[in-house]
Write a structure and sequence with these properties.
By secondary structure, this protein is of the alpha+beta class. The protein is 25% helix and 33% strand. The chain has helices at 46-55, 69-82, 143-146, 148-151, 165-168, 175-185, and strands at 3-5, 11-13, 17-23, 30-35, 40-44, 87-90, 96-103, 108-117, 120-127, 137-140, 155-157.
């Protein structure tokens, strides 16, 4: 984590920021931020405006007193963040995720589909070469905690549309899903 000082007592992990959506910048600025950890943060007021300026320095008019627009944006951000604002932290737990993991000991590779539902979680593993399913595993709690040893060192993948794991993936992955997943590890 690399924190950037924005104000006297305010720091932001700019490198860990993966998503920032700004609303109503002219009247009542608000921003929703999502970090690589999955944590969601909602900021408003001058904090939202300053972060927008910091992340989007080309939207600022050029400054004659500073050599670059980035430095100008940082100055705006520092002064705005110095004022007190409301900052809300909301933990964001994703309920579905896909990962790829290679087992060097057996020279095999797997796709893993994780799901959180109703206070428990499940894992479906599929052979990355054939798409054949392994027996489903259930645990109480969320998959992020219960299967963290499998997630560590694995590569997160995405699918354009989530297949129904119970109906469509009982014995093997559908060819379309298998193709999408394979293309991400090639």
């Amino acid at each position: 984590m690399a924190l950037r000082k924005i104000g006297d007592e305010t720091f932001v992990d700019v490198e860990g920021l993966v998503f920032a959506e700004f609303e109503q910048l002219e009247s009542d600025p608000k921003a929703t931020l999502i970090f690589t950890s999955g944590q969601q943060m909602r900021i408003s007021g001058n904090s939202a405006s300053a972060l927008h300026s910091f992340l989007n320095p080309e939207s600022q008019p050029p400054s004659r007193s500073t050599p670059s627009m980035l430095e100008d944006a940082e100055a705006v951000a520092i002064s705005a963040f110095a004022e007190s604002d409301r900052i809300e932290f909301t933990p964001m737990v994703r309920n579905k995720a896909w990962y790829h993991r290679s087992d060097k000991a057996t020279n095999r590779s797997f796709f893993m589909a994780f799901v959180n539902a109703k206070g428990s979680c499940s894992l479906r593993m599929f052979d990355a070469g054939t798409g054949i399913a392994f027996p489903k595993q259930y645990r109480s709690g969320n998959y992020q905690d219960q299967f963290k040893e499998l997630i560590q060192g694995a590569v997160e993948l995405t699918v354009p549309s989530q297949p129904n794991l119970e109906r469509d993936c009982k014995e093997r992955l559908p060819q379309s899903t298998l193709g999408v997943l394979r293309s991400q590890i090639a």
